[in-house]
Amino acid sequence: ILVFGIFGYYYETGLPKGVMSLLGMILGAFAFLVLFVICQLLGKKINKIPLAINASLLSVFSTFYLAKMLGFRLPDQIYYPGVIGLVLLTMLLFFSIKKVKKGSSVLAWLGIVMPVLLVLAGIFWLNNEGNDPYAKNLPAPFVEQTNNTLAAQGIENPAKLGKYKVEKFTYGNGSDQNRKEYAEGVKYKTATIDASHLLPEWKGKKKKQRESYWGFGVKNFPLNGRVFLPEGNGPFPITLIVHGNHSMIDYSDDGYGYLGELLASQGIIAVSVDENFINAHWSGDFRGKEMPARAWILLKHLEQWRNWNTDTNHELFQKIDMDHIMLVGHSRGGEAVSIAAAFNRLSHFPDNGKEQFDFNFGIKGVVSIAPTDYRYHRKIKLENVNYLSLQGAYDSDEVSFWGMRPYRRLEFTDEGDWFKAGVYIHRANHGQFNSSWGRTDFGPPSSWLLNTQPLITGEDQREAAKVFISAFAAGVLQNNKQYLPIFDNINTAKDWLPENFYLTHFQDSDDLILQNFEEDIDLKNGKNGITIASHNLQIYREENLATRDGGSQENNAVILGWDYGDQIDPDSVASYTLRFPDSSLLNIDSSNQLLISVAAGNYKELFKNKKGKEKDKRKEPQLDFHIQLIDSSGHQTQLQISEIKRIAPRLQVRFSKVKSLDADWIGKDWEVHLESFALPLLNFSASNDNFDFDKIKEIKLNFDISKYGVIVIDDIGISKENDHQ
Prior knowledge:
This protein is an alpha+beta fold. The protein has helices spanning 2-10, 17-48, 51-70, 76-102, 106-127, 204-214, 257-265, 291-310, 332-343, 404-409, 458-477, 612-616, 659-665, and strands at 166-172, 188-189, 225-230, 236-242, 269-273, 320-330, 363-369, 386-392, 419-425, 502-508, 512-515, 531-535, 539-546, 552-563, 574-579, 593-600, 626-631, 636-640, 675-680, 685-686, 696-703, 708-719.
């Protein structure tokens, strides 16, 4: 009663605290009395039940609880009701069988048949893949007819095998006690490396059990790799591919052969690096403390390749172009490649200066596939390197596009020709980027609850990865920029990609970003003296975009919403305008392109105060609008954005078979993912032939096509080069 009184005293309702304290004490007394009566009644009933049954029930529930704690990682709202249901069904079955033995009865037989049918129904439901409740609301992903595809221009599919024959072999210490390919199967033997400064957490149970399995410890890690070598004299660029955190005894390094073979056939050495020995295991997970070691091991592999390349007595002498290196990583490996690119330029390990670095390799590109960006305690900020990240919308392991955070932090500070890109692939999961990981991103029993029916096939997911990664590699390692338009306008690659939604983001080092909403919280003023005007908007705010699980995308954008009802009134069109203090700020002509990043927002925000049918009758709008340019003389020109590329709808997902699980287990069914639009100024239709592109005074977004909608806008700028084209 006293505790409830204190609770009431501090419970803020607006009533006097004394009154609330008294109400709390009354509630406490009432709760105690009710529970007392219930417990008395239960006690009388329990005393009538044989001790063996009471002990059995207590033991059963205790055992189930112990199983939950030890590793049966199902959500509580599924596990505990399921346990109670199974126990009740078992009791019903037991007593029904006893009744049948004494004499047949309809109710007794029903008590046998019903539990069996319910269990079979449960097994069927667990084996069922689920469904896609959002598919029916989506339009076709690609524009039906387009004559601007790269294939129509005679450009070959980047995912097609190239002209080089490929030699495959492994290298390593030669003493692996679990895998022949890294024991007597190695072509070249390598020395071990001492990672004790990088992974001091190699101790205790993890140390003992891992060393028992592998036969080595942190002081003598092997350099093991699967090589895909183009046949020829070279020198060839080189790519290292590294897996993420999977079970260490379910080896992951063989799952990227599809990438290795493709790149090697196109004249790029590819190496799938073995780091399985620091992956998760029933003995424990390093929980991200191993991230520096993951990155450092990659650099030690490059060191080995540099040694071979300079050894006049080695078969690989001068075979490798060490000035053109690309790192590809998946999952935790996707974070490791960014860390490796940062470590590459350091003289010492930042977490322990006793470990000296002497790398400085020619790392030109980093590819992060479904990466983490929070395991290492340091926030990596890259400079002057090309970057690509891929992410599946149905990734239930890494549920948000963490790879766009290093994308945002990456800066181009020198005169080099750099670019960065991101691709969000609808209906792709985490595991299928590795050919051996599969369609479920969790192991059993959690995998039983995953909604896998919406997923594309593993073959289609890896085909998409091949297109994007090969296109990136061509631009980074072979100076072949013909594929870069893919990252601005996915319709240019529709002949090569499985039919699906792909949201692409692209920025070149020469792009001039006029407004990115990062500088302050002032809605009326932007960068470089730019002023901002808005008209007739129902929603207008700048915000830090959130991930589906409530984290931060580390990116600010402006959210704009409008609603005209049944008809658009030309006199009350909503608009958003950037005004420039000096037209020379742009310094452009009609050969340039206007850049803007766009995403569909949550249109339901417009109707959150409405009820019933009035709220539910509105469907997801197909967003479209005009971009209008006004020069210093008042001349105007405009372009409908869908003439270049259609704005993708919100790509909602259902991760689990039980809708209510998603909120607690995964997060929201949708998060904002921006797309890049590169709009050639030559495509703008001028109302006056005297329009002067080098004297643009205003950029105005007129929301005059869709009757209602919410849109997210970011990175308004100008492209001064042709990499977008």
